[in-house]
Design brief:
This protein is α+β, with helices and mostly antiparallel strands. It contains two helices and seven strands; from the N terminus they run βαββββββα. A seven-stranded antiparallel β-sheet has the order 1-7-6-5-4-3-2, covered by helices on one side.
C-alpha cells in the first residue's frame, strides 16, 4: 500500500487559543469544506472533542455518496489533534492538525497521510487533485474567517 502525503499551512493573525477553539467545534467543519462535496455531519452536535471521539459524515465525491467515520486519536488542546478514518473512501487517512503560537498570530498546519483503493492510477487521476482542491478551499476559508495576515507578518522563530 503506497502512502501519500499532503501538507498545507496558513498563517492566521489570531491567537492560537481562538483558532484551536474554532477547530474544537466539529460543527465548524462544514464552513471549511467545499460546497461541491455536499458535506454533512451525521453525529449530533455538539460533539465533545477528546481522544476517542467518533464523528460520522455523509458527503459526495464525484457524485458518489460516501459515508465516513473518523476517530480523534490524539487530543492536545491548544497544540494539535489527529483524526483517523475508521470507515470511508480511503484505505488509510490520518490527518494531523498542528497549531503554533507566534508573536503576531498562529501558524496552522495540516499534515495528511493517506492511501487510496485502486492504487497509483486512481491517485493520479482523481484523488491527488481532489485533496489539493479541498485543502486550497479550506485555506481560503480560514483566511476569510480569521482575517488576512498583514503583508509584513513574519514567522517568529
Amino acid at each position: 500500500m503506497k502512502v501519500h502525503q499532503h501538507h498545507s499551512e496558513v498563517w492566521l493573525p489570531r491567537p492560537v487559543d481562538e483558532v484551536f477553539e474554532f477547530f474544537s467545534n466539529a460543527g465548524n467543519l462544514g464552513a471549511l469544506t467545499p460546497p461541491w462535496v455536499e458535506f454533512q455531519i451525521l453525529t449530533p452536535v455538539p460533539i465533545p472533542m477528546r481522544a476517542g471521539a467518533l464523528i460520522d459524515y455523509r458527503l459526495r465525491i464525484h457524485g458518489l455518496p460516501i459515508r465516513w467515520r473518523t476517530e480523534i486519536t490524539e487530543w492536545e488542546p491548544g497544540h494539535r489533534f489527529v483524526d483517523e478514518q475508521r470507515r470511508g473512501p480511503y484505505r488509510m487517512w490520518v490527518h494531523e492538525h498542528l497549531f503554533e503560537q507566534h508573536a503576531d498570530g498562529t501558524l496552522m498546519r495540516d499534515l495528511v497521510r493517506y492511501a487510496v483503493p485502486g492504487g497509483e492510477f486512481i491517485h493520479r487521476l482523481f484523488v491527488r487533485r481532489d485533496v489539493e482542491r479541498i485543502f486550497d478551499f479550506r485555506r481560503a476559508r480560514m483566511l476569510e474567517i480569521f482575517g488576512q495576515p498583514h503583508p509584513a507578518a513574519q514567522l517568529a522563530g
